[in-house]
Amino acid sequence: MKFSTKYGEVEVSSQALKQLIREAIVNSYGIVDLSNASLMSQVASLFSETDRGVKLVDDGQNVKIDIYAIAEYGINIMQVALNLQDAVIYNLRTYAGLNPKEVNIHFVDINF
How many CB atoms lie within 10 A of CB 68? Predict the structure, then answer.
């Protein structure tokens, strides 16, 4: 993702953005681990911009994020998803100046 300022251009790599997303995930209550959505996603991640559990689509103007998470048993899944969305948006706005178009949370399993 590139940004223009009065002093020139700033480029932030997708890996740096994913690290900001992972930081929000690690600090979120109720998330046990990350997972790919399916076996096909694991194979596709070898050839695309998908890291384990985090998919980032950056078209130069908008950023769309899909997070595939494993939840802790006994938590309110809806509240955990909302908190995680808020944390990801906060990190991207604060540290990268981005306003993501979408932050989708997919719970693929529950850890008992």
Answer: 22
Look up the CATH number of domain 2-111: 3.30.70.1350
Domain ranges of the chain: 2-111
Q: Bridge partners of 98?
A: none
Looking at per-residue pLDDT, the higher value among 83 and 41 belongs to 83
Report the distance separating Cα 48 and Cα 56, nearest Å: 10
Residues shown for the chain: 112
- Give the integer Cα–Cα distance in Å for 92 and 18: 10
| Dihedral (CA of 26, 62, 50, 109) sign | positive
**Strand ranges (DSSP E) for the chain?**
2-5, 8-11, 31-34, 50-51, 54-58, 63-72, 102-111
**Coil, strand or helix at 86:** helix
pLDDT at 2 over 70: yes
For 26-71, what is each residue's pLDDT tens digit?
A: 999 999 998 876 555 555 555 554 578 899 998 877 899 999 999 9
